[in-house]
Amino acid sequence: MFDILKTRLEQGYRTKTFPPPDPQLPDSYRGLPALDPGLCQKGCDACARVCPTDALRTTEGGFGLDLGRCLFCPECSRACPTGALSFTRQYQLATSSREDLVLGGQALALARSLDERTRRLFGRSLKLRQVSAGGCNACEADINVLGTVVYDLGRFGIQFVASPRHADGLLVTGPVTNAMRQALAAAYEATPAPKIVIAVGACAISGGPFAGSPMVNDGVEDSLRVDLYVPGCPPHPLTILDGLLRLLGRLEGDPAVR
Fold first, then answer.
1. Is residue 133 situated within a structural domain?
2. What are the pLDDT digits (tens) for 107-162?
3. Which residue blocks in 123-222 are alpha helix, DSSP H?
4. CB atoms within 10 A of CB 49
5. Would you say residue 109 lies in a domain?
């Protein structure tokens, strides 16, 4: 018993301040891609040829990257002979529109907050029903991490509920397989209005590595209007939390939401 108490005292306060002043990300972490069209060699498409999801497209003036398709694998940066593409440590990736995920060298337009009426309703108490629409469980695992003592999602007033009838919106993962399309639609219909939809991960945004398969619907957008896009494969818990708080207007002018 005393050993347990001693260990707990040694651990101290484990919940992270958010946003973290110095995020502890693993060395292998790959965040927002940095594109430098000026370094891109004319006629070179080495990066596009190795991309497994067709997220990269070369153009006359350089190249473009679709974060909604990107798996954040290192193949493109390894293949580029001039270093025109690299990965930064930036974990803030969520956007409010699908178009904002398509980069061509411009700064990423991060997610905007909901309209004032919806923000008043959900800003301090947001209940979400998570729907795994054919996911591999990687995104689902990182969403579960948000409920641990380290992230403590509940302190922001955000909770996951067991029924869409008790929810303010849906948080969807997976490419929306044919087998799950009707179930997703039923969950959406059961959610009381007004309601929001959040697409988490490359699969939910574009179909990810399964895009084009006759067994999937290439993400949520084909079925539902989406309010927040969180790219990644899977997105880091910090990325998901950052997107949720931006959607609720909790990060605007507030450097440290505890």
1. yes
2. 899 999 999 999 998 988 999 999 999 999 999 999 999 999 999 999 999 999 99
3. 138-145, 178-190, 202-206
4. 12
5. no
H or E segment to which residue 117 belongs: helix 116-122
Eight-class DSSP state of 32: S
Q: What is the pLDDT of residues 181-200, one digit of tens each?
A: 999 999 999 999 999 999 99
Residues 6+ apart with CB under 8 A from 124: 157
User: Whole domain around residue 152: which residue ranges?
Assistant: 116-247
Tokens describing residue 126? 């947001």
Question: Do the Cβ atoms of 76 and 63 come closer than 8 Å?
Answer: no
Return the CATH number at 190: 3.40.50.12280
Does some domain include residue 198? Answer: yes
The tally of CA atoms less than 13 A away on the side-chain side of residue 171 is 24
Residue 221 lies in a domain: yes
pLDDT per position as a tens digit, 55-93: 998 776 667 899 999 999 999 999 999 988 999 999 999
When divided into structural domains, the chain yields a total of 1
Cα–Cα distance for residue pair 89/154, rounded to 1 Å: 26
